[in-house]
Structure formats: C-alpha cells, structure tokens
C-alpha cells in the first residue's frame, strides 16, 4: 500500500507556488512521439526512467501526450493515458503540445508533419537524417521564424554529441575537415565479417535484430545513410553542402571476405569512411570503403561504434567516439535535445557559429596511398608488388584522385581502396604516379 502511494506521488506533478502564494500542481511539458520503432520506444522509455533528472533540470515534468504509429493493431505496451493514433491530425489538434519528436522513416510525411508542428509553435526534434539532409535548411529557417527550437543531434552518429559540439562549442574555430565512421550498421558488418568470419547477410541480419539498421538497409550498406549524415555535418561546419551529384558514394556490398582476409594479413582493416573538407574554397566530400592501418585511430573502431574527427584551425584535431546506432544511444541524443528545446538554446540563431566560413586556409588535397586489388594488367604498374606473397595480384600506389579515377576506367575488374595511416612494406616500393 505504502509502495503504491509512493509511486502515485512520483508520477503526479510536483507542487509549485503560484503568484497568489497558493500551492498548485506544476505544469508539465507535453510531447508527442511520431514513430514507435527502435528510436521512438527508446525515447518513451528514457522519459520514464529519467523523469527525476528531467524534472530537476527543466523544473517541470515531461509527459508523453501522444504517439503516432502506422499500424494500430500492434500491441505497444504504452501507458493507457497516452493517445496512440495513426492520425497526425489528432496529435496536432491536442490542447497542449509543446514538443514534437519525429522518429519515422523517409522524407514524407515526416517533413510535412514537422512543418506543421513548427507552425503551431512546437519545438521539434528529429532523428530522421534522410529527411533532414534534404529539408533541414528549410526547417531551420521556419523554426527561426516561429522562434522555436529544432534539435537534430540524433541524425548524426547516434549517441555521439557531434552536432552540439560543432554548434555550441566550436563557434570561433574554422573547421577544415571532418572525417569518420558515420554508419554503425556497416561498421558492425565489417567487424563481424573480419573477427568472426560471418557472411555479409548473417551480419546484416544481426544488425537488423539489434535495431541498428534502417527499415530499408540499402541506405546503410550502400553508403546513403553516411552520405546524409555527411551533408548535415557539412551544413553546420561549412554553412553549405556540396552538389550531391559530385560526392562519390560507395557502400560496402562489394567487399568480400577474401578481401577482408587479405587486408588483415597486411595489417589493414576495411572501414566505411565519410569525409568532407574545404579544398580551395570548395566543399569536397566522399563516402567509400577505405583501408586503415594499425597506426590510424579509426583502425580500432569496431562494431556499432562511430568516430568523428574534426580538424579546426585553433583547436587542432578532436575526435569523438561512441555508439552510432541503437535504442538507448539514440534516445540519449533526443533527450539531450529536449533540454535544449525547452530551455530554447536550440533555437536556430542561438548558436554563435558563423553560417559561412571564410575558406582562407583551406588545403590542397594531397596524393594518397591506394591499394589496388586484382589489377587487370599488372604491367601497367612497373613497380607493382605482385611478387609479394601477401600482396599477390595487387599493388600499392601513391596518386591523386584524378589519376585513380582514370586508372579505374582502365582497370574495370580491379578494386581501388585508399589507405589511411602509415603503411609501409619491407623490401617493397611504393609506385608513385
Ligand atoms: N535505429 C537507429 O539506431 C537510428 C535511427 N535513426 C532514424 O530514426 C528514424 C526511426 O528509426 P527506427 O526507430 O530505427 O525505425 P523503425 O523502423 O524501427 O520504426 C519506425 C516507426 O515509424 C512508424 N512509421 C513509419 N512510417 C510512418 C508513417 N507514415 N506514419 C506514422 N508512423 C510511421 C512505424 O510505425 P509502425 O510501428 O506502426 O510500423 C514505426 O513505429 C529513422 O529516420 C532513422 O533513420 C537515427 C539514429 C539511429
Ligand atoms: N542505421 C543507422 C542508424 C543510426 O543512424 C546506422 O547504422 O548508423
């Protein structure tokens, strides 16, 4: 009995003194969660488990007023007082609605729902990178017009607070380059294939079961997901995005277990690397499978972990690392955005970061090391390493992007992988092109 009443006291709003000096129930922050999959459920659970912390930071209880889903037949285990509906109209028409958290999939109807929520005066938070990469600029503008916050920490690198780091903590630094592992599913698959000899499809199934993969995992394994995240980072770091068509995007589907084993023998690991930088004032990016050597920090990023390195002119290089996908890490990003939303530190324009950076000290892209697996014509590479047992049927070159591009055209069956980090082979010479 005592336990039950204690529980009741905790769940009801605390008392606050009103202007007339009498005690009333403290008002609560009412939120709606759009989507109740991995992310939506994580947010719902975290609000339950961390109500005390939320209340102490915000001075108010946070109440989930409504949840939007597609399939009304599924049992959700949601508290009976919460409106569970497949009709957005019922949510947007609620008497009180302060924050809308969007965790559904794809551009529409997510974009329209968030526009309507902002127009109603609600703060919005999204985890939907595909939508935000396309419409983030418009939504930020709309949010500024309506003086509401827009949170999108969960759109990039799951639980790793990279957006707030750039927006709130690197206001004066000029960012030169951002590079990292931005897709948890791909990194998990590559790690499982290498460490446990799993097949691609078995590793993908496991990533889906753990809630890491997108509803359509093509986005993960073909590099679209990392690409969307890169575009979101580009906008906050450089104040703009490159022409999407000019960003090479390649996923991990063509990587075989044999290639992974061959790389392993050479002390190299495959990682899906996303990178974006200013080169002579132009924003240049790419998403592609890359080989990293033991000396490189990304070599040790395994499983669902993500890692993002930010190179800036004052601070130098800082690296953030942590879980890049999954229920609770993503809920963590959303919940922290909720604090900024309610305290209004997430209103666009409240970040001091300049919108457009002067590309004064942008860099010239140097030649990189590339490992070519199975070139069609080894004679093409006079100093090829084909005589090496480990490198049988492959060679290492140093070349710029354009040279590699032409070589690819001439060697259609060969695979070209940039090598990051120190990579030297005894008695072997690098072919410099
Ligand atoms: N999973 C992760 O680790 C991360 C995911 N994200 C992003 O968060 C978003 C959600 O991901 P996740 O939770 O994994 O996805 P899920 O597929 O697990 O869940 C999607 C949810 O959205 C609902 N939904 C889909 N379309 C509609 C619609 N048109 N109207 C109403 N409800 C709809 C589904 O309803 P129903 O249950 O009825 O089918 C489901 O509850 C995605 O944009 C994803 O990219 C971001 C960071 C990490
Ligand atoms: N599918 C995504 C989820 C988080 O953004 C990933 O695997 O990284």
From TrEMBL:
Catalytic activity: L-homoserine + NADP(+) = L-aspartate 4-semialdehyde + NADPH + H(+)
UniProt keyword annotation of Protease present: no
UniProt keywords, alphabetically: Amino-acid biosynthesis, Methionine biosynthesis, NADP, Oxidoreductase, Sodium, Threonine biosynthesis
Pathway: Amino-acid biosynthesis; L-methionine biosynthesis via de novo pathway; L-homoserine from L-aspartate: step 3/3; Amino-acid biosynthesis; L-threonine biosynthesis; L-threonine from L-aspartate: step 3/5
Annotated InterPro entries: Asp/hSer_DH_NAD-bd (IPR005106), HDH_cat (IPR001342), HDH_CS (IPR019811), NAD(P)-bd_dom_sf (IPR036291)
GO molecular function, one term: NADP binding
Domain Aspartate/homoserine dehydrogenase NAD-binding as annotated: residue spans: 35-152
All copies of domain Homoserine dehydrogenase catalytic, residue ranges: 161-339
EC number: 1.1.1.3
Family: Belongs to the homoserine dehydrogenase family.
Descriptive protein name: Homoserine dehydrogenase
